Amino acid sequence: MPGIDKLPIEETLEDSPQTRSLLGVFEEDTAATSSYFSQLFRAMQRIYDAQNELSAATHLTSRLLKDYEKQRFPLGGDDEVMSSTLQQFAKVIDELSSCHAVLSTQLADAMMFPITQFQERDLRGRRQQYHDTAINRYSRLSKRKENEKVKNEVMEDVYTSRKKQHETIMHYFASLNMLQYKKKMALLEPLLGYMQAQISFFKLGSENLTQQWEEFLTNIGTSVQNVRREMDSDAEATEQAIQDMKAASDPLYMPDPDPNQIPVNRNLTRKAGYLNTRYKTGLVSSAWDRQYFFTQGGNLMSQSRGDVAGGLVMDIDNCSVMAVDCDDRRFCFQITWIATINNISKRIYLSENPEEIAARVNQSALEAHLKDYADVIYETMRQILAARAIHNIFRMTESHLLVTCECLKLVDPQTQVTRLRFPLSSVVLCASHRENKRLFGFVLTTAGGREDGRPVTVCYVFESNNDGEKICDSVGLAKQIALHSEMVRLISNDSI
Q1: Where the protein is mainly located, per its record (predicted)?
Q2: In whole angstroms, what separates CA 455 from the centre of its chain?
Q3: Which of 189, 321, 367, 487 is 20 to 30 A from 307, comparing alpha carbons?
């Protein structure tokens, strides 16, 4: 038998998205196993029902043959030879009926019992989670209005729920690991029982054929026993590991553990855990979202539940952190990107009209005043990203960009309504960010007229799910096709 895939029980307390993703694979495998075994169970149930029906029909045939001599037929009713012959048939068929009854019993014990037990007992594991409710209640404790009694009750609730969740998940992981063994046995044991019952029933006359099947079934039986012994050994080791991890993780169940009870890890190069982040839902309202954060190099990354990978939040090498007071959360802090403040303040206070600059820092398009349009795009990207960071603007509007030989369209993905339309002839330049290839922008001349005797150009910046360079290449290709079509049209007109 090949090796058995297992869930890492030692990572249950951290409850990282990677562990949850791996757990999702095991749960998906369990669902596929349940679906397959349901079909196999129905097929074997039909075999068992058919065998019971065959046994009952054989017994009924034997009884009817015995009752032949009691029948009164108008013609040939006194045929003693026929009656004697049928009585012999009835005796043989009655013995055969007994064999069928024995076969039905063997099928029930050796085939139906293992797969029924696997269906009803081993595929019914469920998780229970109380930890999120308790930790959310603890996070909402007010730091300004300390109530020691309430705090102790909530901390005890967090401790109990965290310990219960850890123990439950460890046993849940262990049961999923054991399921990898059990599904092999649940698949082989019913087949083994079915074949052994059939061999016992038919009593194959050919010694070579019987020996061949017995040798095969003996090997299968030996394999099943080996899997069972391996499962028992692994179950003992898993249970011991669970007990050891429960004892080692007990101080970590408390939300505010005593630092003296936790050894200092001086080789720590990565920090990870869950934090509540606040985002604005309106002008004065806000909401909290619990996300998984981790450090990677000099970057702070975040990953929401259900996401397959984390995303960049900010560069923490150039940040400052300070504690802040919050009415509805404990232990709050804010991270400030120093480069953002420097860039925004320098742009505002060194400008001749700072009010105008400050009024439009949260826009996604800026009027271009430079002749080098590539620098305009990069400068616009820098200013918009800095403005969004300083104003805590994290929400975005999703649109589909449609590139044709006539125009660029921003289409609403839900309603398919065109939000913006830019003639392709007005697009001057399209370029992507030097480092972040998902950022791209283009400069176009506005169709609204001129200002101070010069055409007004505007730079738009977007963030795409695809490579920005490929989008810019598509825009360039569209302009080439449009130019070629225009040249062909002019040549055709000249020819006429």
Answers
A1: other
A2: 52
A3: 321
